[in-house]
Design brief:
With 140 residues, the protein is an alpha+beta fold. It has one helix and ten strands. Strands 9-7-6-5-1-2-3-10 form an eight-stranded mixed beta sheet. A two-stranded antiparallel ribbon has the order 4-8. The longest helix has 24 residues. The protein is elongated.
Length: 140
């Protein structure tokens, strides 16, 4: 016969495991010489499958903290990072301090349902020379 855990016990174990896994993710993201980053791109072109790089959000080092078992990312500059090209970001890539990708996500404006939310206009458009701030970066 297998042990059956009570709901509070099972919930506590799951939360602890999630927090430990997320702490390891932060450790991996902060590895390397530079800061961890979030690179934001447009949708892939239907023909070439290439994405346009719009902006790189530079994260603090350490790049985040554990809040309620989840990762809360922290942008270095609270005023934002400068946009390199005009477009609507829909895809993001989290890179470690050496620039190696560690995770991919969807991106939207504050009102959208993206995994990563940024401050933009209602239509999600960001403009070259403007600034992007991370408004929600909870992971896991």
């Amino acid at each position: 016969m297998a042990w059956t855990l009570t709901t509070p016990h099972d919930t506590a174990r799951t939360t602890a495991a999630q927090a430990a896994a997320n702490a390891k993710t932060l450790q991996l993201a902060d590895a390397g010489a530079g800061p961890s980053t979030l690179r934001l791109y447009t949708d892939a072109d239907p023909v070439t499958q290439e994405r346009t790089h719009l902006v790189t959000i530079v994260l603090a080092k350490p790049c985040g903290t554990i809040v309620g078992g989840q990762i809360q990312l922290t942008q270095v500059d609270p005023l934002g990072d400068m946009v390199a090209a005009t477009g609507v970001p829909t895809f993001g890539q989290w890179c470690d301090g050496d620039g190696m990708a560690i995770a991919d996500c969807t991106v939207s404006n504050d009102a959208g349902d993206g995994d990563l939310k940024i401050s933009t206009r209602q239509d999600g458009m960001i403009f070259e020379g403007g600034f992007v701030t991370l408004t929600e970066g909870l992971i896991g």
